[in-house]
Specification:
five-stranded antiparallel beta sheet; amino-acid biosynthesis (chains A, B); 2 domains; EC 1.1.1.3 (chains A, B); alpha/beta; homodimer; Dihydrodipicolinate Reductase, domain 2
Chain lengths: ~375, ~375
């Protein structure tokens, strides 16, 4: 335990999550004297920092050095060769949501390069790609962890793995997977009246407010189409054992009025959305007549292999109804846990908590390879 | 990856949790061809099965073989020598709640023997013993995991570790740590009236019912004194960074009326408890006047290092009020998660879910040593 192992870290992406991760990595490196965590490669889509001899890049100064760098990113196959030839074990940290990087995971893994990432694309693509990733890892012994690909730093993927690997049978998973849609419905149809007595706004007003607060994508339709939820549900369902073909292989209810699918911009969409407020108002009123509230939920029934994403109603005392802010919540029903599910809830988005998922994965990989 | 590593498993305890664990171990061994999981030692306090040459004990038939065995358990120092001399790495699984086994953890760990266990005694004893355990592990490289020492299979300890190791600051933890007391207060002071219209019973009637259903210790005072909650809170607080001296070093509210502390038996206690029903009834009524319900909670405020265990009141919409059955619930407030805590809830007791915590720990150890 006294020799210092060196592990090389290569990072793609230095945006919101990437910058938070670099802060956590600097902290981790300082607190982990038994392992020398050497940052050897850092890149955005435009610039890069690295050297032919894999010398350490100062982590604290890496972002500034990157901004001033004249180096350009290595093409992915060249990056694979560069990392595979390194003089120590390598962990690739993909802090992007880039498809091309996700596509290259089997190649990295087959060459012994471990991966930690919040990138959903790799795990919510085709089932063949999913298999290629885990087969490559199993064959080479490289590790791949992606806790933050669903629910940011919440311990969801590790929990599903623990349940499955210890021999429990997951029968059903349901959850509020989207922070944006959580915020919208918690505001639009709260389980209890606001403590300040404030009336809830119309659906379109809530969407506009969520955009203003930075809770939506630049075009809110990218949240309202439900595909982000479908991708996360695909990942959990696959971990629970179902060979889900793709996130478009099951019913996903879009909250975009058909007439606004083709609006030319997010702004045009928002301008026209008030014309359709009666639709969501009637959904809310129908639920209220039964003493319930409406929420946007993803669920998988493992026995029937049925996945679906869309609106569902819940009693006001249900944990899904009582959710606050933009929190996520996930219920895992299993044979061992019986009628009361194992529930995990909390912030499912944000730079620091997403980076935390990546950092905790890195620690798991280090415990196995360092 | 193609050679089969052998890892020896030694198990102390073959009661409720122990039997469930053996079932999960048999399953795991069958599904893990890359590692040969060899059971080499199995013991209760009376009988044992092992051989001088560490040959494999058939896992599926182990309980039956133990029941028929004429071998007696090795004294703990002898067991340490036996396991330290083994021809492969060893994991000791302590499925007891025995103090003497807990006391020997530093010795096992210092000799390179890893430990997984649900035994609270080792981690909720003196702070010196806590330090001796983790110092021994750090020095020898042996691993020690104890997820099931709090909340059974719920991912609590792993989550606290992830938060701390990734650099988050835990500011506060509060939770309903006892399945027994959860059941009692969920029945005695439900947040919403029972769906079958059933009236709640008196406090003493609820305690008697819980005992009948097998939710209490043989003497219910062992639940009502709060010490089980204090031990679990001590463990989480220490993981959050506080050097808690012992589970008796902070205020713990006992629910045993002072007059009944000295009752000679659990039965005598139950027979006399109705005389004191007015006390708990007035607590419940006071909470109800504020629109609240009463729950038995453990909490730690990290900044002020204040731990306490006892009755607190919660709004009916609070997640602690809405808990069902004998579920546990834990809220982790941290710098990153802000005002909305990370919450984990579900069954916190039971043979299979406790064994699951032990088995998932074993898998973590195997990933690092096998």
């Amino acid at each position: 335990m006294s020799t210092q192992h060196r592990v090389l870290i290569a990072i793609i992406g230095a945006g919101g999550v990437g910058k938070c991760f670099l802060g956590q990595l600097a902290d981790l490196a300082a607190r982990r004297p038994a392992t020398r965590l050497s940052l050897c490669y850092l890149t955005t889509s435009k610039r890069a920092v690295y050297s032919a001899d894999y010398s350490d890049i100062d982590i604290a100064g890496a972002v500034a050095r990157l901004a001033a760098s004249a180096q350009t990113p290595l093409h992915l196959p060249v990056l694979v060769d560069y990392l595979a030839a390194a003089p120590a074990k390598v962990v690739l940290v993909d802090n992007t949501s880039a498809q091309d990087v996700a596509d290259a995971y089997p190649l990295f893994l087959s060459r012994g390069i471990s991966i930690v990432t919040p990138n959903k694309k790799a795990f919510a693509g085709s089932y063949e790609h999913w298999q290629a990733i885990f087969t490559a890892a199993a064959t080479s012994g490289a590790k791949v962890y992606h806790e933050a690909s669903c629910g940011a730093g919440l311990p969801l993927i590790s929990t599903v793995k623990d349940l499955v690997e210890t021999g429990d049978q997951i029968t059903r998973i349901e959850g509020i997977f989207s922070g944006t849609l959580s915020f919208l419905f918690n505001s639009f149809a709260p389980a209890t009246p606001a403590s300040d007595g404030r009336a809830t706004g119309t659906w379109s007003a809530e969407v506009a407010k969520a955009k203003e607060l930075g809770y939506t994508e630049p075009d809110p339709r990218d949240d309202l189409n439900g595909m982000d939820v479908a991708r996360k549900l695909t990942i959990l369902a696959r971990l629970a054992g179902l060979p889900v073909a793709s996130p478009t292989a099951f019913p996903v209810q879009s909250l975009i009025p058909a007439e606004l699918e083709t609006a030319s911009s997010g702004d045009e969409f928002l301008a026209k959305l008030p014309q359709f407020d009666a639709q969501m108002e009637s959904v809310k009123a129908a639920a209220a007549r039964d003493g319930k509230v409406v929420r946007y939920v993803g669920s998988v029934d493992v026995a029937t292999q049925a996945l679906k994403v869309g609106l569902e109603t819940f009693d006001r005392a249900h944990p899904f109804a009582a959710l606050k802010g933009s929190d996520n919540i996930f219920s895992f029903y299993t044979k061992r846990y019986g009628s009361n599910p194992l529930i995990i809830q909390g912030a499912g988005a944000g730079g620091e908590v997403t980076a935390m998922g990546v950092t905790s994965d890195l620690i798991k990989v280090l415990s196995q390879i360092a």
